[in-house]
Amino acid sequence: MQKYLYAISDIHGMADLFKRLLTEYDPKIHQLLLIGDLNDRGPMSKECLLLGKKLVEEHQAIYLRGNHEEYFLQFLNAPEDWFAAYVRNGGKETIESLLHIGATEEYSPTEIALMIRSRYGDLIEFLMERPLYYEWGKYLFVHAGVDLSKKDWRKTTDHDFIWIREPFHKGKNRTGKTIVFGHTITPMLHGDMQTTDLWQQDDKIGIDGGAVFGGSVHGVIFDDKGVLQDIEYQNLAGPWQPDF
């Protein structure tokens, strides 16, 4: 086990901020962990996904599956059923970064899925293999959270690992672990829709500062005692807006 773990919050296609956080990463001393949602909403989703894959393959990074990686895979499996919802939730940016600008208007959902499958088979297979959680000492890293109503948190459903919100945020953490998660932006967790700081409560730490919505990304360095350093970069480019 590395002496330190470096966890990076939801990136959502913000490649410049992702690369900036990676300048603080030292593979000699850090176990790198990507909390999921590298794609959708931001303009450089392809670059972020491929960089995540490279970090796993070359530096043994841990890349957890988020709900937006799941959304992407569901769209590819049933494009006609999932297209409208996926585009509405930021999938247009992923599709057009993988193909080209205007692809969502130019081709049918089935054609889009066939083209992505034919060009990015290795990436799709890689995303299907992403784990849902990672344990490191006293810490449990997960994209969205766990089902705290279960005696054994490992019996959380796959859906809840990547989608759960309020029942996890408000539930009592009796797991014996400090649970580090993304998915729900910290401005929402803080209750003011402004504060992008880490959210810490009941041995839970929320690290998604909502960068793609005009907030920030976090790179959080942990040791066996707690948070050693929180590296936060604001998104100065402005929030993502859906383009319907």
Task: Describe this protein's structure.
Strand 4 (133-136) and strand 5 (139-142) form a beta hairpin. This protein is an alpha/beta fold. It is built from ten helices and ten strands. The strands form two sheets. Strands 3-2-1-9-10 form a five-stranded mixed sheet, covered by helices on one side. The protein has a five-stranded mixed sheet with strand order 4-5-6-8-7, with no helix packed on it. The chain has helices spanning 15-22, 45-59, 67-77, 79-98, 103-106, 109-119, 121-128, 158-163, 166-170, 186-189; strands at residues 4-8, 30-34, 62-63, 133-136, 139-142, 178-181, 199-201, 204-206, 216-222, 227-234.
Question: Briefly, what is this?
Answer:
The protein is of the alpha/beta class.
Q: Topology, please?
A:
Elements: E1 4-8, H1 15-22, E2 30-34, H2 45-59, E3 62-63, H3 67-77, H4 79-98, H5 103-106, H6 109-119, H7 121-128, E4 133-136, E5 139-142, H8 158-163, H9 166-170, E6 178-181, H10 186-189, E7 199-201, E8 204-206, E9 216-222, E10 227-234
Parallel strand pairs: 1-2, 2-3, 5-6, 6-8
Antiparallel strand pairs: 1-9, 4-5, 7-8, 9-10
Helix pairs in contact: 3-4, 4-6
Q: Estimate the strand proportion.
A: 15-25%
Number of helical segments? 10
Tell me the strand order in the biggest sheet: 3-2-1-9-10
Estimated radius of gyration = 17 Å
* Biggest beta sheet summary: 5 strands, mixed
End-to-end separation: 46 Å
On the 0-100 scale, what is the average pLDDT? 96
What general outline do the C-alpha atoms trace? globular
Structural class: alpha/beta
Low-confidence stretches: none
Number of strands: 10
Helical content, roughly? 25-40%
Give the SSE order as H and E letters.
EHEHEHHHHHEEHHEHEEEE
